[in-house]
From TrEMBL:
SUPFAM superfamilies documented for this protein: P-loop containing nucleoside triphosphate hydrolases (SSF52540)
Top-rank taxon, per record: Bacteria
Presence of keyword Chloroplast: no
Domain annotation FtsK: ranges: 230-417
Gene3D superfamilies (UniProt xref): P-loop containing nucleotide triphosphate hydrolases
Example of a GO MF term: DNA binding
Keyword Ubl conjugation among record annotations: no
InterPro entries referenced in this protein's UniProt entry, alphabetically: FtsK/SpoIIIE/SftA, FtsK_dom, P-loop_NTPase
Protein name: Hypothetical cell division FtsK/SpoIIIE protein
Residues that span the membrane, as ranges: 27-45, 52-70
Keywords, sorted A to Z: ATP-binding, Cell cycle, Cell division, Membrane, Nucleotide-binding, Transmembrane, Transmembrane helix
Length: 483
């Protein structure tokens, strides 16, 4: 207990906070012994109940162990424990999935809670500025729970009152370094709560092979690669438009080819049509004879020069309007059929057509066709997929009309928000830090879907020239009508 004595001479005083104007001197209050004992008992009881509530399994284990030693003696108890450990090891080896789900991840979470997060929590909070000191007292965000799965730790925390998730997003790199993780992702939970995700390993660190073609692909989602949590990366390709942005060599081609590859069974069944503008004449394999142009035999329409690309887009636009007229008033949602298939229009290096073509008339007309397709196409089964290197608005005016976006390796950090939307980089989409080494970084990107502000990190499977040759052998139908 302290009594405040303003103005007392400093030499006689005890201060809890050095160098402050307000000073305190302890005053002794006599308390009956029974009160002290009752307070200590109350605290002990409260602590016990809290520990049992927070760690029921650990408490049960300790109690069980004590009971075992008491009832059979320590030698037999030791033998039993060794036998149980042997059983657990056998279980882990024979049935890894069920062992991890029931025991393994819990044990790992407990170890990481004790050894990584709890041990470094206080210094990390203080040094990163997420903890506060007021009136000599330290206030730290609460570390509540750690859970583990195959690729990451999820740490649930309670923020200090007055903090917001943005304070934490700005400190994400500090937290990642402090806890020895390659990155930290911040997700908002209920008010005042956050989940911090710290990956332990990166399944995207090595190139992935092309995803095997399914006999019956999902009508709306194309599987193009792997997410960083090890799950398949499913991209919506129906009822949306997709923008893919990446510096030269970032691997845009593998995303485009991944989508084409996944749709091939639907193309063969007549439920999907691929329209391709390929101004570079390389990405999608243009050539002057069928042997030089394997990719073309998979496409419904193919164009390379700006004039031909414009003709292709005009035709697509007319087709879209015909479908809209047919649907008008009685069909609300497009479902692919033989009469009205799903149309995917892939425009590689779209900036060349929208900004760099010399002929202004062609440029304006292409911009106008792309605007119409992107504003009216998705409800009638027309999906626009555009790839480019430079995300500036001057280069692609319709950038904001793409509901889904992918940022591959980018040259500058401010390009990330240009592609994925405001605040995406703070939420962990560090596309400017993706390795420029092909082996490590090509095809790696952050996907921002329309319905979620959280960017998903993933890598496209690499569709090699041999894969394309196989695709043409198995699915190539006829030489695309080259416009
Ligand atoms: N998913 C991937 N996994 C591993 N390596 C890849 C992947 N995608 C592409 N690569 C490698 O990166 C190289 C460049 O890829 P790609 O041509 O697709 O890049 P890009 O972004 O289209 O570049 P540009 O805009 O210059 O054409 C490829 O030759 C290939 O070796």
């Amino acid at each position: 207990m302290f009594r405040k004595l303003p103005g007392d001479p400093a030499r006689d005083l005890v201060s809890t906070t050095p160098d402050t104007a307000v000073v305190f001197r302890p005053s002794v209050v006599q308390v009956p012994a029974i009160v002290t004992v009752l307070i200590a008992l109350w605290r002990f009881l409260g602590g016990t109940v809290r520990t049992i509530y927070r760690h029921p399994i650990a408490c049960l284990l300790c109690l069980g162990l004590a009971w075992l030693i008491y009832s059979v003696g320590w030698q037999r108890a030791l033998l039993l424990i060794l036998a149980e450990t042997g059983l657990l090891i056998a279980w882990a080896r024979l049935e890894r999935a069920s062992f991890c789900a029931l025991v393994g991840w819990r044990l790992l979470a407990w170890y990481r809670w004790m050894w990584i997060y709890r041990r470094h929590w206080q210094p990390t909070m203080v040094i990163s500025g997420l903890g506060r000191t007021s009136g000599g007292r330290e206030f730290l965000p609460r570390l509540r729970k750690v859970t583990c799965d195959g690729w990451a730790d999820t740490v649930r925390i309670k923020m200090l009152s007055g903090q917001s998730h943005e304070d934490w997003e700005k400190r994400a790199p500090h937290l990642a370094h402090a806890f020895g993780a390659p990155s930290c992702r911040v997700t908002v939970g209920k008010p005042g709560w956050l989940a911090l995700t710290f990956p332990r390993r990166d399944p995207l660190a090595v190139p992935l092979p092309a995803i095997p073609i399914k006999n019956v692909p999902h009508p709306e989602f194309a599987e193009t690669g792997l997410r960083e949590d090890g799950k398949p990366l499913m991209l919506r390709v129906h009822g949306t438009h997709l923008l893919i942005v990446g510096a030269t060599g970032a691997g845009k081609g593998s995303w485009e080819w991944g989508i084409i590859r996944d749709r091939l069974p639907l193309v063969r069944a007549g439920l999907c049509r691929l329209w391709v503008c390929d101004p570079k004449r390389m990405e999608l394999k243009f050539g002057h004879s069928p042997s030089e142009a394997p990719g073309k035999t998979l496409f419904y329409r193919y164009a390379a020069t700006p004039e031909d690309c414009l003709t292709l887009l005009e035709e697509a636009e007319k087709e879209m309007q015909r479908t809209a007229d047919a649907f008008g008033g009685h069909v609300r949602k497009h479902v692919a059929s033989l009469e009205y298939p799903h149309n995917i229009i892939i425009v590689d290096e779209v900036a060349f057509l929208t900004a760099y073509v010399d002929d202004r008339k062609i440029r304006d007309a292409i911009n106008s066709r792309l605007s119409t397709l992107s504003t009216q196409g998705r409800s009638v089964g027309f999906t626009l997929i555009a790839a480019l290197q430079d995300p500036r608005k001057e280069v692609l005016k319709i950038r904001n009309l793409f509901p889904d976006k992918i940022a591959l390796r980018l040259d500058e950090s401010d390009q990330v928000d240009m592609v994925l939307g405001e605040g995406a980089r703070d939420r962990g989409a560090l596309a400017d830090l993706i390795a420029s080494d092909e082996y490590e970084g090509a095809g790696v990107g952050f996907v921002r879907l329309e319905k979620s502000p959280i960017p998903i990190r993933g890598r496209a499977g690499y569709v090699s020239d041999d894969d394309i040759t196989d695709m043409v052998r198995d699915y190539g139908q006829h030489l695309a009508e080259v416009i």
